[in-house]
Design brief:
Elements lengths: L1 H7 L15 H4 L1 H14 L8 H13 L7 H16 L5 H39 L3
The chain binds protoporphyrin IX containing FE.
Length: 133
């Protein structure tokens, strides 16, 4: 998905530049994204079990400077890829259900990441105020 998204937004590739995932095919990045969404969908009624995973991924995203406005394109490409893989089995109902799951999970990440960005900013401000910065 990330790779398909980059065709439209080559600038989104930047976040991946310094990571082990710059080798997309070998890195299994699309698989990781898809399996996180699957894990989320199957844990929808016990999200606390996924809290550690969400926290881990949110930290990765914040290190890569991912922003909320990047989520819709990745979601769109995920659904497109699912349609390609599933073919006729990808009914409107199934695709709509996954769209909803993606959008709910995206909100979870966006919120977790906003909190981390705020905490990082605060730490930075505290350092400046204390003269260590
Ligand atoms: C609900 C949507 C998303 C899910 C479930 C998701 C999931 C993941 C997962 C599982 C990882 C790997 C973490 C690891 O290996 O430790 C990851 C890494 C990453 N994701 Fe996402 N992601 C989402 C949205 C996005 C978006 C919108 C972008 C923007 C282009 C993005 C960019 C990245 C980058 C750059 C990394 C690599 C960070 C690193 O290597 O340190 N992700 N994501």
């Amino acid at each position: 998905m990330y790779e398909i998204a980059f065709q439209e937004r080559p600038d989104y590739r930047l976040g991946f530049g310094n990571t082990f995932m710059q080798h997309f095919d070998g890195g299994g990045q699309a698989k990781k994204l898809a399996s996180s969404i699957y894990a989320y969908a199957t844990h929808i009624d016990k999200l606390d079990e996924l809290a550690a995973a969400v926290d881990h991924i949110a930290h990765r995203h914040v290190n890569a400077r991912i922003l909320p406005e990047q989520y819709p394109l990745i979601g769109e490409k995920l659904l497109q890829a699912m349609k390609e893989v599933l073919g006729a089995a990808a009914t409107d109902e199934i695709i709509d259900a996954w769209r909803e799951a993606y959008s709910a999970l995206a909100s979870v990440f966006i919120e977790a990441e906003a909190k981390l960005y705020r905490e990082n900013d605060q730490k930075h401000l505290d350092r400046l105020a204390s003269g260590d910065g």
